[in-house]
Write a structure and sequence with these properties.
The protein has about 210 residues and is an alpha+beta fold. It has helices at about 1-25, 35-40; strands at about 45, 50-55, 60, 75, 80-85, 90, 105-115, 130, 135-140, 150-155, 160-165, 165-175, 180, 185-190, 195, 200.
Length: about 210
Amino acid sequence: MNKTITITIAVLVLALLIVIPQLSDKINIKLATNFEECVALGNPIMKSYPRQCRFGETTFTEDTRPPVACTMEAKLCSDGSYVSRTGPNCEFSACPTVATTSTVNVSGVVTLGPTCPVMRNPPDPQCADRPYVTTVQVIEVGSPKSSPFATAKTDAMGQYSVNLPPGSYALQPIGGNTLPRCETKEVTVVEGVSQKVNLSCDTGIR
């Protein structure tokens, strides 16, 4: 008797192991979230206007509104590109993601000298180089552009400050047509390291 029960249970378990995977492959429950999906699943359509489709206890109504025509406006993005309005609410498309680059501060003092025709030893304080109010041009080394990458004005103390992304640059104060003649210094900007670069201009006084 016990042997018969054991065999019967074994047969039932084997049958379940064969049938259950087959049933799980055939069962594919799909849900409708709108009128179009409800119709696609083969549910009945009610004779009404607008048309309605019933899915279980939920009824979906067909959207009969005409498509919205968006205006031809364009939005200028930070990278120089443009995006237009789109979608049902005519919202501007997202601007392209622009990778941001950290900048480093480069500062210094621009001086003008000599200021006396004869330099004395010890130096005369009255003949010390004086601050030069001008504009410092920043040229990107190796760039095909002739225009400055950036500029920085000096204050009454000859001090300037400019933030630059990592790279190689040439710094040059703007002098006169003939005098003063200002030197050019190259600087390599490294991320996270601020730099002091003092510049001088020659008055031509001898």
